[in-house]
Design a protein that fits this description.
binds nicotinamide-adenine-dinucleotide, 42% helix, 14 strands, six-stranded parallel β-sheet
Amino acid sequence: MVKICCIGAGYVGGPTMAMIAYKCSDVQVVVVDIAAARINAWNSDRLPIFEPGLDDVVKACRGKNLSFSTDVEAHVADSDIIFVSVNTPTKTRGLGAGKAADLTYWESAARMIADVSKSDKIVVEKSTVPVKTAEAIEKILTHNSKGINFQILSNPEFLAEGTAMDDLANPDRVLIGGRETPEGQRAIAALKAVYARWVPEDRILTMNLWSAELSKLAANAILAQRISSINAMSALCEATGADVSEVAYAVGKDSRIGSRFLNASVGFGGSCFQKDILSLVYICECHGLPEVAHYWKQVVQINDYQKTRFVNRVVSSMFNTVSGKKVAILGFAFKKDTGDTRETPAIDVCRGLLGDKAQLSIYDPQVTEDQIRRDLATGKFDWDHPQHLVPSSPTACKQVSVVWDAYSATAGAHGICIMTEWEEFKNLDYKKIYDGMEKPAFIFDGRNVVNVEELRKIGFIVYSVGKPLDPWVKDLPAVAY
Ligand code: NAD
């Protein structure tokens, strides 16, 4: 029986390993982590992450061929294939701070693997890493190997949170990169045999290590670039009276472009896009390619611009001040169907409004009060360092309250900001909400989920990213956006 161990029981390690166990009943899968609380949660009825369909898959395999453990070393020593799915955050200090990927967690995992291994292993990079990381990992492993053969493979993960289980069950492609030596090719074949149980052969792409590593960074950069492109257009739409949804629809009809990832919004979030683009920027700079670095950096800069622009719209529309005014924040997760708040635009928007002394009332169906307060207290980039490794205490900020439904959040508010495209925000009783708010009542839709015309009929002043401006907003004195 093939034994697989995955180091890192996070958003990637947990779901991917659950899917492997589910699809391969003859493969023994154990997911290990140094975070005991996380492992306990994986072993409980309340899993540590919310992902549609995940509960069923975990329950079907846990206790059979899937287990979760903190006994990292024993399980690593015992396995044939070791996936490493630890976090690879942006460095906060030292060389490359604010851009380069921090490989501390990866390096310590590699050293531990070398330390405890007594038989040959295939080590799989599941984390997103800078191109050429496998070379460094190989050096760490072989210089400490005690005669054991390690083969390194790159197998980047393309799942998207919120649809992770579907993405894993029906991936567009699985990438496996390895050395072009006979041993490297054998390792590729062994991993391919695992995926081939449920992924059609023509979707399993094998290639050299560096192509596989770079493909993941390239895919994330290009996805994020589409969002920043349409967001840049949304600013021009607002200035000219064009409607960004119509523009995106027309552009997306071109089969060379396609319609996905062309939704204008307050900006992209999530743990990967910004971190991976900054990592790409740093790699380009290190390779003497400043023009290429500058090109990709713009994708992040437009994203920051979009968040700032949104805050400026809110404040300028509400008579140039939100001081002391209650503003409801609907949604805090970086997208719907996840409780993940890493790099969510809601954090920057809330900080912007708090800076203008607003009173925020925040509601998200999947994010806890503790998490929201922690996010608002954590410094840029620090969020991606696991909480048990870099503790930060939640802020007791008196300007923030966290509530458990949209109606309490909006009661008595001057304005509403929609930060996440949760389905329930489309179907709220907006007449009831309007009646309970201060007047004039404002809605700022950062996700284009509301029906602008209907809300205007109720009496709201509505701003929706990239849509023709409400006469109220249009007639305001010019502000720099
Ligand atoms: P995560 O923070 O949710 O999980 C990482 C886990 O690794 C944490 O639980 C941490 O405790 C554990 N860990 C760190 N060092 C360890 C060690 N030495 N031994 C054992 N456990 C250790 O991160 P994630 O979202 O699962 O992302 C993991 C990697 O996958 C990152 O490189 C990320 O860029 C990449 N990725 C993420 C996504 C996504 O949607 N989240 C998608 C594709 C790729």
